[in-house]
Amino acid sequence: MSDPGRDAQGRFRKGCKPGPGNPNAARVARLRSALLKAVTPADVKAIVKRLVEAARGGDVQASKVLLDRCLGQPLPCDVLARLESLEKLLESEQ
Questions:
Q1: How many domains does the chain have?
Q2: Does the residue 94 lie in any domain?
Q3: Considering Cα of 30, then 35, then 41, then 44, what sign does the dihedral take?
Q4: What local confidence, expressed as pLDDT, does residue 42 receive?
């Protein structure tokens, strides 16, 4: 099916009218701006301090949030594929 706004290679033609964009972008920007104005560095420090205290106290969710934010979320890993590659490596060393 042919798109009248695109050429044979799928590129936009000259004069093609762009899409409407995100209708909520302006509202989200205003909300984000209000949030950034309302939260101070001291607020963030206090929140993080409580999060660390909760994690030290054994709160698993607090630990997960803290570690995910500090270290990044763990990458998905295919355990079987990893084991097979390690077995091949061990075999090649013998």
A1: 1
A2: no
A3: negative
A4: 97
Residue 9 resides in a domain: no
Could you read off the pLDDT of 14-70 as tens digits, one per residue?
Answer: 888 777 789 999 999 999 999 999 999 999 999 999 999 999 999 999 999 999 999
CA–centroid distance for 25 within its chain:
19
Q: Three-state SS for 12?
A: strand
pLDDT at 2: 67
Q: Which two tokens stand for residue 35?
A: 């949030």
C-alpha distance across the termini of the chain, in Å: 58
Reported pTM: 0.55
Separate counts of helices (H) and strands (E) for the chain? 4, 0
Question: Measuring CA to CA, which residue among 73, 42, 67, 41 is closest to residue 54?
Answer: 67
Residue 82 lies in a domain: no
Its domain, for residue 50, covers 40-73
In the block, tokens 């091949």 appear at 88
